[in-house]
């Protein structure tokens, strides 16, 4: 064996090594093992407990107004519901199609559904596939409607609550919502939902303040 | 998994420019050392007299391919984060042909013309100027060709996706192709040398 190796030229040796590595690849098949599912239950439990994976609707509203483009917002509801209304900048994806949606493992992904159950389930599925930055919109679209689109002032507001309401009124107007004039009980929920096209998603760069969204161009 | 380093945020935009500079200088250096700053060596590919470029390029492809495959296998590299440019079949076929014609006529490809120019060759410098002029013309007339430029889009597609093969099978086939290519290239060089041997100009 040693003699055989000694008789080979350098090129033949390299060729042999390459052929062996190629053969190894043939046996291995697929190199990435990320298609399988690996979970660290303790780590997931810790995240759930500390709620570090939550994004509140107020935070999200602020980010959209600032025109931040460092996250992807995924709407998990049906296409019909999505067409009717969605949070500006959101992309529609069903839970089953999530793995083919072109999400990257190092992206910040914010999931929302009507309430919170679907997004929580999708969160787990993505976490199991080693997506790192997956977040839930706390309260889902229900809370978005309640706090951002149609904010109402509590019956006996403290000065703090009144100030917060004044701020939310502006946010609400930005998103095409209607701040309720009285308390929620007095006004009822007979207010019209804004059209999904209103306001224009700030990704177009028209948002007040903040730099326009930039997409990194890659390639050689 | 910790690679690709940039995608995992091990360094930011500004450091990535330095990394690109160092890699680029290294690339140019080895192209020059392989003799690719000389248009005669490059053009010899098309006459089968000296298939050095073919061999060097295929060696690079094999090294990179096997490296990526095995690094991803041991869990060092996340293959899904490696950039793959989108496929636009027809425009890319046409573009490849144009590049090929330019390569045969001018004796350089874009990278090697830069290498050649930086070693002080006049033909390389002229090639580089022509390339920049072509870039400007292309950019200015881009709206006219945009429809064709984005036609037949296939998205991010790879051979394993297209033929429903595992990556390993594709790696193996490329290895076979390369080893066969090396043997064939060596044989062709010898055959051409023998033919040229008698009436050597």
SSE layout and pairings?
The complex is a heterodimer of chains A (220) and B (201).
Chain A: H1 2-7, H2 10-28, H3 41-50, E1 54-55, H4 57-66, E2 72-75, H5 79-84, E3 91-92, E4 108-112, H6 117-128, E5 133-137, H7 140-149, H8 159-174, H9 184-187
Parallel strand pairs in A: 1-5, 2-3, 2-4, 4-5
Chain B: H1 13-33, H2 39-43, H3 52-73, E1 87-88, H4 89-106, H5 110-118, H6 122-140, H7 142-149, E2 153-155, H8 159-163, H9 167-197
Antiparallel strand pairs in B: 1-2
Describe the structure.
The complex is a heterodimer of chains A (220) and B (201). With 220 residues, chain A is α/β, with parallel strands linked by helices. Helices cover 42% and strands 8% of the residues of chain A. Chain A has 9 helices and 5 strands. In chain A, helix 6 links the parallel strand 4 (108-112) and strand 5 (133-137). Chain B has a domain at 90-152. Chain B starts with 12 loop residues before the first helix and ends with a helix. A two-stranded antiparallel ribbon of chain B has the order 1-2. With 201 residues, chain B is an all-alpha fold. The A-B interface holds A 11, 15, 18-19, 21-23, 25-34, 104-106, 218-220 and B 7-9, 62, 66, 69-70, 72-73, 75, 78-81, 83, 85, 166-169, 171-172, 174-176, 178-179, 182.
């Amino acid at each position: 064996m040693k003699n055989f190796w000694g008789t080979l030229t350098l090129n033949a040796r390299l060729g042999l090594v390459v052929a062996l590595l190629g053969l190894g690849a043939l046996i291995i098949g697929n190199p990435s093992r990320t298609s399988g599912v690996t979970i660290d239950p303790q780590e997931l439990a810790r995240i759930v407990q500390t709620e570090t994976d939550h994004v509140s609707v107020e935070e999200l509203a602020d980010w959209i107004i600032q025109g931040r483009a460092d996250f992807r917002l995924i709407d998990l509801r049906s296409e019909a519901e999505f067409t009717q209304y969605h949070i500006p900048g959101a992309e529609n994806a069903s839970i089953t199609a999530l793995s083919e949606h072109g999400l990257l493992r190092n992206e910040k992904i914010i999931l929302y559904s009507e309430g919170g159950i679907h997004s929580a389930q999708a969160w787990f599925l993505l976490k199991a596939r080693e997506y790192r930055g997956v977040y839930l919109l706390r309260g889902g679209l229900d809370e978005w409607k309640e706090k951002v689109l149609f904010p109402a002032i509590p019956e006996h507001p403290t000065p703090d609550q009144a100030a917060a309401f004044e701020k939310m009124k502006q946010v609400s107007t930005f998103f095409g919502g209607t701040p309720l004039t009285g308390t929620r009980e007095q006004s009822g929920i007979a207010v019209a939902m804004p059209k999904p096209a209103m306001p224009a998603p700030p990704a177009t760069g028209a948002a007040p303040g903040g730099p326009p969204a930039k997409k990194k161009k890659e390639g050689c | 998994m910790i690679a690709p380093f940039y995608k995992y945020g091990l360094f930011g935009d500004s450091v990535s420019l330095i990394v690109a500079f160092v890699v680029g200088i290294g690339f140019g250096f080895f192209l020059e050392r392989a003799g690719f700053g000389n248009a005669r060596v490059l053009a010899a590919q098309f006459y089968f007299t000296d298939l050095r470029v073919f061999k060097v390029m295929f060696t690079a492809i094999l090294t990179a391919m096997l490296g990526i495959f095995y690094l991803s296998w041991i869990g060092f590299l996340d293959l899904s984060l490696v950039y793959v440019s989108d496929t636009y079949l027809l425009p890319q076929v046409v573009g490849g042909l144009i590049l090929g014609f330019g390569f045969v006529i001018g004796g350089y490809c874009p990278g090697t013309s830069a290498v050649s120019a930086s070693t002080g060759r006049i033909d390389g410098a002229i090639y580089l100027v022509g390339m920049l002029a072509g870039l400007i013309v292309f950019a200015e007339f881009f709206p006219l060709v945009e429809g064709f430029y984005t036609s037949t889009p296939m998205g991010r597609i790879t051979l394993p996706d297209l033929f429903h093969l595992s990556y390993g099978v594709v790696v193996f086939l490329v290895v076979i192709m390369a080893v066969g290519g090396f043997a064939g290239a060596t044989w062709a060089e010898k055959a051409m040398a023998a033919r040229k041997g008698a009436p050597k100009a």
